[in-house]
Write a structure and sequence with these properties.
By secondary structure, this protein is mostly helical. The chain has two domains: 74 residues, no CATH class; 52 residues, no CATH class. It has seven helices and no strands. The radius of gyration is 22 Å and the shape is extended.
Length: 156
């Protein structure tokens, strides 16, 4: 059984020339690659979590969407397919707090507003909540465990 990254690479290599240059696929080639990956999931040739199997394998439309996203992801991130470039996130931190119920509700509220002042106030509240969440997840350091010579060098 292949992992998802290898499955996408194999599918791309079966459709187009992969020679450590940036792979550019046509719309038709992309559709073929997506079909190959989706068929691999159905045939249980590609690893997928149990929860994902339940969610996607019984719905061909969702499976195709998932496969499409997977192909797009690895075309950007796999150095064998993107010309050897290290992937850099375009908007780092843009998902910060996205699982927090308060942040979700504040973003939904902001989407309903049209007054710029009110939007700014809600945006401020979102930023404050995200900062609060970041502070909670910050690691704690036990300085007693840090070697004294290193603490002295760092001025701690």
């Amino acid at each position: 059984m292949k992992n998802q990254k290898e499955a996408v690479f194999t599918a791309v290599a079966s459709i187009t020339n992969v020679d450590n240059n940036t792979v550019v696929v046509t719309t038709e080639e992309r559709a073929q690659i997506i079909d190959i990956v989706a068929a691999g999931f159905v045939a249980n040739e590609i690893t997928m979590s149990e929860a994902a199997c339940i969610k996607y394998l019984n719905d061909p439309v969702k499976l195709r969407q998932y496969s499409s996203s997977l192909v797009n992801n690895w075309l950007r991130k796999d150095t064998r397919l993107n010309g050897g470039a290290k992937y850099i996130t375009k908007n780092p931190g843009s998902r910060a707090g996205s699982q927090d119920e308060l942040v979700k509700n504040l973003k939904a509220l902001r989407a309903t507003l049209s007054d710029d002042d009110k939007i700014a106030q809600v945006t401020e509240a979102i930023a404050a909540r995200q900062a609060e969440l970041k502070a909670v997840s910050a690691p704690t350091v036990d300085l007693d465990l840090i070697p004294s010579d290193l603490k002295a060098k760092l001025g701690l």
